[in-house]
Amino acid sequence: MYPEWMWQKTKDEEMDLEERLVNALTKRKFTITTAESCTGGMIAGTLVNVAGASDVLSEGYITYSNEAKERLVGVDRETLKSYGAVSEQTAKEMAEGAARAAGAEVALSATGIAGPGGGTAEKPVGLVYIGCCVCGRTNVVKFQFKGSRMQNRVSTVEEALKLALKEIEDL
């Protein structure tokens, strides 16, 4: 069900992506949280594959509905009305709000349309925004995935972990 990178080491990497991220967080004494919509907890779930993840991950938020985005991580109702749940603005507010709510140095957010339905001409299936807030600095990246629902979700998790690792290493 899950891709090979989630449980096996590759020839090119000494450690898996999630292991590298947990190690980078541990080294800097950072904690991480997630605010997940289209991934439904898969980012946090991937991090807990790593022994010692409990030292850096204490909580995460599944914010599948707009109401949960507002209530749990403080996304502004006007942002959701003006830009929609699947937007750069919402991903930014999700990441920043999760960091605040959890008191974490690092927060990842993911909001998108996993498919197979739900897409529009402006926001097609596979459109995902991933936000990463590190020590108050937020970066949001837009992706357009082309796979099945599960492939789009797994691709989102992989890209989120890569983004967090890059942002932490760029400090």
Q: What's the structural blueprint in terms of helices and strands?
A:
Elements: H1 17-28, E1 32-36, H2 42-47, E2 61-62, H3 66-73, H4 77-83, H5 88-102, E3 106-112, E4 127-134, E5 137-144, H6 149-169
Parallel strand pairs: 1-2, 1-3
Antiparallel strand pairs: 3-4, 4-5
Helix pairs in contact: 1-6
Walk me through the structure.
This protein is an alpha/beta fold and 171 residues long. The chain is 40% helix and 18% strand. The protein has one domain: CinA-like (Maf protein, Alpha-Beta Complex). The chain contains six helices and five strands, in the order αβαβαααβββα. The protein has a five-stranded mixed β-sheet with strand order 2-1-3-4-5, sandwiched between helices. The longest helix has 21 residues, at 149-169. It is globular. The N and C termini lie far apart (35 Å). The mean pLDDT is 94.
Keywords, please?
Maf protein; single chain; 171 residues; 5-stranded mixed beta sheet; alpha/beta; 5 strands; globular; 6 helices
Quick recap:
By secondary structure, the chain is α/β, with parallel strands linked by helices. The chain has 6 helices and 5 strands; from the N terminus they run αβαβαααβββα.
What is the string of SSEs from the N terminus onward? HEHEHHHEEEH
The average pLDDT is 94
| The CATH C-level class name | Alpha Beta
Structural class: alpha/beta
Number of strands: 5
Q: Largest sheet, described in full?
A: 5 strands, mixed
CATH architecture: Alpha-Beta Complex
Proportion of residues in extended strands: 15-25%
Individual helix count: 6
The H-level CATH homologous superfamily, spelled out, is: CinA-like
Provide the spatial order of strands within the biggest beta sheet. Answer: 2-1-3-4-5
